[in-house]
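For reproducibility, we list the full input for the flavin-adenine dinucleotide complex.
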Amino acid sequence: FRAVIFDMGGVVLPSPFPMTKEYELNKKIPAGTIWKTIKDYGENGAWPKLEVGEINAEEFGTIFSEECSKTACEKIEVHDFLEYLEIGMKNPITEVLDAVNCLRQEGIKTALLTNNWIQGDGKSLLPFSRNHFDVIVESAVVGMHKPKFPIYNYCLSKLNVKPEEAIFLDDMQPNLVAAKSLGIHTIKVDDVHIAINELEHQLNVPLTSATKGTRPVRKEMQFDVASLTAYLNEKLNMGFTHVPEIREFSHGQSNPTYLIDYGPNAKKMVLRKKPPGKLLPSAHAIEREYRVYNVFNRIMSALGQHGVKVPPVLDLCDDPLVIGTPFYLMELGNIYKDPSLPGMNPQSRQQVYKAMVDTLCSIHKVDINKAGLTDYGKHGNYVERQVNIWTKQYKRSETHSIPSMDRLMTWLPQHLPTNETTTVVHGDIRIDNFIFRRDTPEVVATLDWELSTLGDPISDLAYSCIPHFLPVNFPIISGLKGVNMNELGIPTHEKILEMYCEKMNLHQIDNFDFYMAFSFFRVASILQGVFKRSTQGQASSDKASATGKLAEHMSDIGWSFASKEGFKLFNKMNPTIGGGATRKYSSRAGKAKCGSVFVRSWCLAVYTRNKLKSLFSALPQSTQELHSKLECFMTEHVLPLEETFSRYYSSDKKWTPHPELENLKAKAKSEGLWNLFLPNKEYGAGLTNVEYAYLCEIMGSCLYAPEVFNCSAPDTGNMEVLSEFGTEEQKQKWLLPLLNGEIRSCFAMTEPKVASSDATNIESSIVEDGDNLVLNGRKWWTSGAMDPRMKIIIFMGKNDPNAIKHQQQSMVLVPASTPGVKVMRPLTVFGFDDAPVGHGEVAFDDVIVPKENMILKAGAGFQIAQARLGPGRIHHCMRLIGSAERSLQLMKQRVKSRVAFGRALSTRDTILRDIATSRIEIDQCRLLVLKTAHMMDVAGNKAAAKEIAMIKVSVPTTVSRVIDRAMQSFGAAGLSGDFPMAGFYVWSRALRIADGPDAVHEAAIAKREL
Ligand SMILES: Cc1cc2nc3c(=O)[nH]c(=O)nc-3n(C[C@H](O)[C@H](O)[C@H](O)COP(=O)(O)OP(=O)(O)OC[C@H]3O[C@@H](n4cnc5c(N)ncnc54)[C@H](O)[C@@H]3O)c2cc1C
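The corresponding predicted structure, in tokenized form, follows.
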């Protein structure tokens, strides 16, 4: 063979098949619609036209949406399908590019033969350097596609080889059949690793490069190579005169790891050393890690039947003079870094995970007495000791307050396991700590024993499940959350538990959530240590700084497990135990004794079985996952830009949205963090108000965040109006671009001349003129009017001043560009102009719009305003809780680090009282908001009117107080633009008037009470 031809999707890039299924699931499109459409339409459909470049991505979106709609017999919108695939397919499978490299080094020609498409930016889809291949044939560029013969012949001619001299790898059978009939040898790719193996056999050429996963050694990680060479020659009799090539492994945070390569005929070695600089005690115990290897080597030779596999250690050098720190050397093997095992088929993935569990069991089954390991660690109370160690470690490296970490440090010691067993524990079980054989998914060695000791084996098991709860692409530890595990063949964490219990002969593990909470706590503590070191410039990875910030995310997940475990324990508790008398009344919405004075406000007899989900852990798993995804997104992408945005929106460019905002929006959208507010499943996330409350709170922690997720006012309210009351045409024209985040909108009701808290006062007019409506009036406080992206206004005016009081008003859609619409000036709140959204004064002078722009019907203005304001008010309150929570968090950090009159502020009684009061008030507000959200969910907005009014009054006032205390604790800085509190304060104060003044709502509450 002289040439190898590779397909792209499913061979060089991840396969689009599982992504398509995911996409259908996310978008609630009937399963299988997309591939059925492609198949049914065949050569006449949009897909082949896209592949040969006849239509572009945008045209494809339109035609393909129609085709899919016909297939599914319902309206289907797939405009962003290609974008979704492009994101999922952006990372090439390194093993394949590695193989391509090796082939070229052996003088074998390589080609990429792909059916691809031209993306929105006009470039073809090819997310890696063209230099990888000798020849690249793209269907969208050459205007031909597989499985038609001409494109194969074209590729062969470019390679200048005969069909029988080439091997072709593809995952699609029809493409392979066509190639075979031309005389090309074919390999079907179901599992990239197996396919590469087959290719290796066919060609008899090694196809993995040793430098995989490595990079040149970073400057701060360099050491004296000459000294190492001299040492190796002396100690290991290397017998080479030349200096080896040294590269650094890119993964791994704690101990820097290097590849030592003497060239083709020598064993490749791995060197692990301590990082430079002063370290926390007990971390980076290289000598200990080495000792364990030796012990295990001993065990292995003595007790081969245990089958624990560790890599043979070649040497330990504890002389710091050789390369600056102690180090050890071992042989190189094959490691999978990504737990989703890209490029493997489901069966192999299953086997890899099974091999991991089996190896874990073999470690836990080692007889410590027979192996002479009784002194390898203390016996019993392992978890308790570990909790102490990691608590101390965390406290030593604490840089700021992490509330969930504080809670875990209290909770874990109170819930320790009572029936621990003692075995050898590894302490860092994850897929990338195993070396696998290349041809079969068999473990040949287990790495990273530096945390091993005698201890509780379930802690290892729980630790191995951490990736199951982290998002894909999570820094440092890639996650599996959101991945379709069933489809990929990856066992769920429950399945892993089951496999383990079966092999270890255990019935079940009752308190597994405790172990998960403990595992996340430990990772959080480790990451905090990495972060602390990064602030001192000693981290062993340049990603360390970003990693440390993830400590908070990890501890939050830990806390969610603790809550779950706590809830389980609570449910099991006998109500009479612990002095707990049976409760006379309930704080849950449910059937209650009507008539009792205590229960009246909770008496929601019509919705008996719906219990209020006041515990986060009671939310559906999918919402909990959205929650952690959102939090992660905020930490990684939004909060780092907060200061930039704040500075920008105070500059003279402020009325033009910051360019980075659109990128953030695109990213959030691609991650499914989009239109979360909209309960309507057709257009939005379809969450209940209670579910959204938890998410909205996160968004409220930064003033710039809601827009990133297309969840900001006034667009949210306007989108709800359009989705509920708009005609099909109005939806197409205005709702869809709003849902896509392409345009913005505003709501013009309040007028300068009349008290508009009473909207029956408004004087703007709507007059019919043939097929048109003519609008006149002056509005102010029209939020969003200043924004250059604002394209549509919902205008409220009177169309019939003689009708009954609440039917005189109507709402009309007015495109912002309509002649006669004039934005006069931006208004300010305490001097804040809220750029680029702004609150404008707007003149409407003889504005003419077609009659079809009326929303719902003439006279329905009040009805629509009421429907709009309910959800709008609760969203404001949910966000305010996020602002309060963040203010309190900042306050706690500040008072711990600020010293006045010789003492930290955090020791002052007044500060302690302020913190306590704020905590109480925030939690009170949150519960009232959740109750209101719950009532809206189960009984409707109308039934919840009193509760909506109550939170509308209570939350802004209370939150203003919380923020005020936080500002006070910061001194002058609290009032400045350097921190977000001043902005939060202005907004919370404004909300006592916006959405209707408090007095109006108080009157409504009192009336209902009376
Ligand atoms: C930041 C911000 C954004 C806004 N965004 C928008 C928007 O996008 N679109 C829009 O149309 N409007 C918007 N508004 C306007 C807002 O809805 C009105 O300001 C509000 O309804 C009050 O109307 P008003 O200012 O005319 O006060 P008025 O109606 O004149 O009331 C003044 C005061 O009278 C008292 N009062 C009124 N009624 C009663 C009562 N029944 N009992 C006792 N006392 C009473 C209260 O103290 C009240 O504050 C916004 C306002 C702000 C501050």
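Residues 279-284, 298-307, 573-610 have pLDDT under 50 and may be disordered. Residues 750 and 756 are 5 Å apart (CA to CA). Both points were considered when choosing residues for closer inspection.
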